[in-house]
Amino acid sequence: MKKILIVDPTDYVNDLQAMIHDTEIDCCSTAFDAISNLNMKAYDLVISEVDLPGDNSFEFYYYLDKNLPYMPVIMTTNRDIDSYFDEIFKNGIGNVLYKPINRQELTGLISKLLREAPIFGLKNYLPDIVEHKRIRIVSSTQINAAISKITSYIQKWNFEIENMMMMNLILNEIIINAVYHAHDFTKEKLARKKITLPEDKYVDIFFAHNGREYAICVRDYMGTLSSKRILESINSVIEQRKTIERAMQEGNLDNFDLAESGRGIELVRKLAKEYYFIIQKGLRTETILKFDSIHTFESNPITSLKIIERQ
């Protein structure tokens, strides 16, 4: 039986225990007690609240990164992670769930991190699929037509796309990343050059619905993305935003250069109802986006960060 250590000083620890079944669970409330437990017993997963009493919680994550680098970790919080993302980046933490946590989201993530469930494919993230489609892309000139086809099907499935321009922007950025960056055409992308992938290379886009939600999966077969690069891109965008805010306060925006790096990932993080980055090094990468009929881009809170990476 798998063993999970939950570190949470709040009453929410009871909710977490109630959501998780068929595992052995130990609970504690401080970083000191958590490290003591880890020294006494072998665990398969740690779930920890960001704000721990006593010792700084990030000292605990530093301990995990240094002493148990392959231990899957899920952070839980009700804070905006942008305010402390530099610590997330520094400690390489790839999974942050916002409270109150959706049970299906939590148990699904746990099963994948513990290697008890497949990590690739929409059927493993969108239950009870009613209709499933695929588009294959071999050239950058096919991207716009693919996006148009996807959004047309979504509307045909009776899902309202509240902001078509924003949806097009999100899909455009993610597909461009898979076509250009994953296949080492970054220079061509920056130069706005059209490309055709090598003869045996392509990007697949899958999209499906179950009547309640719809999901889109962009898959490349290179596996060049990594959790480190994702966290680095997010951190870079956050730091740039802070710099812009400081410059605006000081009234000094002259010669300010906006970087393009990380824009696609940032759009996904801010605007999708739910998302996953799934990576198997050297084999494939999937970006999965989930939406539903009541999703609105303008009012969407920052969604949980989920990166599943296997060597």
What does the model show?
- β9 and β10 (284-292) form a beta hairpin.
- This protein folds into 2 domains: 3-113, Rossmann fold; 122-230 and 258-310, 2-Layer Sandwich (Heat Shock Protein 90), CATH 3.30.565.
- α4 (85-91) runs antiparallel to α9 (227-250) and α7 (164-179) crosses α10.
- The protein has 10 helices and 11 strands.
- By secondary structure, it is of the alpha/beta class.
- The longest helix is centred in the C-terminal third of the chain and has 24 residues, at 227-250.
- The radius of gyration is 20 Å and the shape is globular.
Short descriptors:
alpha/beta; 37% helix; 311 residues; Heat Shock Protein 90; 2 domains; single chain
In short:
37% of the residues lie in helices and 22% in strands. The protein is α/β, with parallel strands linked by helices.
